[in-house]
Design brief:
Largest sheet: 6 strands, mixed, barrel
Strand content: over 45%
CATH architecture: Beta Barrel
CATH superfamily: Acid Proteases
Distance between the termini: 19 Å
């Protein structure tokens, strides 16, 4: 499922929700487009696997506020993103961490999400 939402007061489009992933990823090009200071980035942890079955090292990580809404509910939570420097067709990937944090239920057959 691909959504659009607000991350750090910026509207970010083309966000892939991947419930099979443990990582929450923000691509460096999106990070730079958001005009955030790279000095805010914190040291990254472990490398990430799965991008074309390759290992990708995160540049750094950063906690950012994510605002999610549907027709009835809205909520803001801080999500820690791994910032990676690769070309990808999406601007960010929300893994299981985001869906669990927001207690979101995805209905891929209907292409919709529901927040409690």
């Amino acid at each position: 499922m691909v959504i659009e939402t607000n991350v750090a007061r910026w509207t970010v489009i083309k966000i892939l929700i991947d419930t099979g992933s443990f990582a929450d990823i923000l691509f460096a090009s999106s990070f730079d487009n958001m005009k955030l200071d790279r000095n805010l980035l914190q040291p990254a942890g472990n490398p990430l696997y799965g991008f074309g079955r390759k290992k990708v090292n995160a540049i750094r990580k950063i906690p950012l506020p994510v605002y999610v809404e549907d027709q009835q509910n809205c909520r803001t939570e801080y999500i820690t993103f791994d910032v990676v420097e690769i070309q990808y067709p999406y601007n960010a990937i929300f893994g299981r961490g985001v869906t669990n944090t927001f207690s979101a239920i995805l209905h891929p057959w209907y292409l919709c999400k529901k927040l409690p």
